[in-house]
């Protein structure tokens, strides 16, 4: 079982690397397409729209065909999608390219999580948080490589084209060792998840978790810079601390799940995240705020993996349930930054981040939704 686990870990890391490779070169992509900041934001919304649509559509496909072929198709499509993004020279072409990237990313996101959960069931112990750590470290590597390449003056087209070729090679190599397609295919199972009260609660938990994650990602550095007077370099430390603690804590998240249970870990994670954001808001200096954002990363690290596992435990065919919960989570990820920005415009950015603290606390209250079903003989 070690080979499938290593293979799916590579897929998670590849997803993070490709994702960060694009965002590390956004300034060059924006310049090549000749766009304003607002137009770039609209183009990026096309990616999120594609992601949400394809996540909902991928659940039935996973149920019918199994996750393995969709993992390969999604990874190859995501890698190939970097090329049209790099080549885009107008708003229309960039928006279309981002839409394509969002669609294939949605396929990859749902199928790799379902495959990871299938490997987890075969092993008999939690591994999903560790897989998400693979995504986090892959994203850190992609951002680092992108920054170095940009600093050396390498144009965006050869950088992303080379990344696409390398990514496709990694995807093909990893796919050889994934579980067979019939490991999680359920051709006679349901195509869509029934919107039960428990599944809606899990979706609400995922919504709160990813809204909080997206909001801190987008606004931590801005808050440190504008509200606490930190320079740009120090302000970036808030995001770095948040990202690093999230990645590291995902490495131990599976052991903590075994130690305290899904509900206990979800409740503690939501509470720690809420307290961390509150510390960041109340801190009188940048150092205290950075410590608060680091604590928020610790708390949020395992919440989304817990939601996906809980969704998969709702029935024999995990694909539809995982896709529904994932889509609700990413809806929060999409809504979080503008919601905090709107509140910040009206009452100050501290008030906007206070909303994040409230939602993290609400996730702690919803922790019972991720309770594993009682096994019967």
Kindly describe this structure.
There is one protein chain. This protein is an all-alpha fold and 377 residues long. Helices cover 82% and strands 0% of the residues. It contains 13 helices and no strands. Helix 1 runs antiparallel to helix 7 (156-175), helix 8 packs antiparallel against helix 11 and helix 12 packs antiparallel against helix 13 (349-365).
Helical/strand content category: mainly alpha
Radius of gyration: 20 Å
Strand content: under 5%
Q: Would you list the SSEs in sequence order as H and E?
A: HHHHHHHHHHHHH
Distance between the termini: 25 Å
Percent helix: over 70%
Mean of residue pLDDT values: 89
- How does the major sheet shape up? none
Number of helices: 13
- Got a strand count? 0
Which residue ranges are poorly predicted, with pLDDT under 50 across at least 5 consecutive positions? none
Shape: globular
Features:
377 residues, mainly alpha, 82% helix
Compact summary:
The chain has 377 residues and is mainly α. Helix content is 82%, strand content 0%.
């Amino acid at each position: 079982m070690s080979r499938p686990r290593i293979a799916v870990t590579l897929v998670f890391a590849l997803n993070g690397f490709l994702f960060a490779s694009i965002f590390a070169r956004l300034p060059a992509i924006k310049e090549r397409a000749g766009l304003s900041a607002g137009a770039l934001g609209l183009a990026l919304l096309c990616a999120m729209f594609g992601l949400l649509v394809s996540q909902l559509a991928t659940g039935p496909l996973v149920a019918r065909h199994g996750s393995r072929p969709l993992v390969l198709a999604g990874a190859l499509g995501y890698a190939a999608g970097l090329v049209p993004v790099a080549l885009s020279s107008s708003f229309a072409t960039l928006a279309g390219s981002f839409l394509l990237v969002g669609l294939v990313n949605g396929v990859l996101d749902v199928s790799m999580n379902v495959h990871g959960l299938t490997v987890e069931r075969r092993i008999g112990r939690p591994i999903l948080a560790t897989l998400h750590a693979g995504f986090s470290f892959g994203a850190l590597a992609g951002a680092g490589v992108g920054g170095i390449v940009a600093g050396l003056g390498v144009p965006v087209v050869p950088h992303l084209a080379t990344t696409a070729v390398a990514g496709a090679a990694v995807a093909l190599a990893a796919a050889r060792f994934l579980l067979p397609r019939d490991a999680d295919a359920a051709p006679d199972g349901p195509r869509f998840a029934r919107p039960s009260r428990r599944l809606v609660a899990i979706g609400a938990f995922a919504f709160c978790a990813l809204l909080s994650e997206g909001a801190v990602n987008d606004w931590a550095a801005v808050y440190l810079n504008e509200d606490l007077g930190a320079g740009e370099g120090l302000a970036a430390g808030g995001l770095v601390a948040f990202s690093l603690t999230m990645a590291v804590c995902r490495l131990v998240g599976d052991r903590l799940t075994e130690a305290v249970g899904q509900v206990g870990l979800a409740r503690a994670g939501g509470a720690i995240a809420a307290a961390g954001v509150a510390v960041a808001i109340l801190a009188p200096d940048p150092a205290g705020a950075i410590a608060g954002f680091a604590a928020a990363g610790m708390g949020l690290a395992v919440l989304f993996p817990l939601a996906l596992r809980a969704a998969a435990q709702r029935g024999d065919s995990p694909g539809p349930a995982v896709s529904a919960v994932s889509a609700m989570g990413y809806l929060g990820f999409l809504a979080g930054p503008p919601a905090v920005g709107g509140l910040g415009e009206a009452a100050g950015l501290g008030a906007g981040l206070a909303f994040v603290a409230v939602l993290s606390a609400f996730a702690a209250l919803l922790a019972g939704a991720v309770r594993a079903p009682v096994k019967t003989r």
